[in-house]
Amino acid sequence: MTEYGIGNIGKKLGIKTLLFPVFVAVAIAVGLILGFIFRSGSSTVATYGIPIGLFFMIYPAMAKVRLNEMGRSFKNIRTVSLMVFLNYAIAPFLVAGIAYFFIYAIYTHFGFISSTVASQMLVGIILLGVAPCIAMVMVWTDLAHGNLPLGVSFVAWNSIIQIITTPFLIYLLARTSVTVSPLLILESVLLYLALPMLAGIVTRILLRKKKYFSRVLEVLGSVQTIALLLTIVVIFWGEGYGIVDTPSLVWMVGIVMLIFYFVLFHSGYLTSRKLGHDYQDSTAIGFTVSARDFEVSIAIAVSAFAAYPYVAITTAIGPLLEIPLMLLLVWIQLGREQVMSASKTFGLTEVSK
To answer: For residue 211, what is the DSSP state?
Structure first.
């Protein structure tokens, strides 16, 4: 029975994984302090630092992907159909419903915010909910030991689909007509999918037959972790003024985002498991359904809702909260994976007796 104990699961997770929330908290604190001290240069830091950080977060994951596995994932119509259904027929409406309940039934009802701020906050959260992530979702899938080739195929599909669905969903939920620039999506695909993928493919071609290739992947894993922590520092340095300037808005948006991320992830993960998919595939679906494209959301907020400042502020808070929340989901999934592994081991042990 000791194989199944919590202490043993903790040992299998490793000290780095167990302490990672502490590292994230330190990175957030450092970013906020730097943003407070060097606020004048924060926008420049975010403009250049975030793309560089994302590249070094995604590239190590891409170096692990085998092209033949990716090809099979693109043709997995059953799994892709489930992802599309959850991402576009369920997720946006679930996010809007959760946001509407908290904003009007709690925040406005108890006088935390005015009706004007409430309507703008609702639109901001709707913008966060309509477009699935096409960048960092691959990092979360990789860190949680999900099916990375499947996650990459999801990103490719979402890059195409959201150009069509995002304006429609925003009109349906926020009653506003907007256009999503294909160039904005193309830029994200090139920066956060094509370039890291190309670098990963080149790395595999050049080094996969070398004896030290496994060691290279280990080093890249460490690079990914460092890049993630530095990206957190940069994001909170560049955008953390929202926390300083509007702390009450942060906790209100944070509660809504915490709930909708957990609901979205588990609706994807548990539905997938119920339909017979394994942990790896279900984890990829869960993160694809829950992770949001904050770049598209912020761009639409700034261009289409410039006259409503709290829309832009709400969408700007999104990336500040998304990374810690998604890392919390990664941490939960790693624990879930170890429990499942321990359960199988315990079962086999019992059978062999």
So the answer is: T
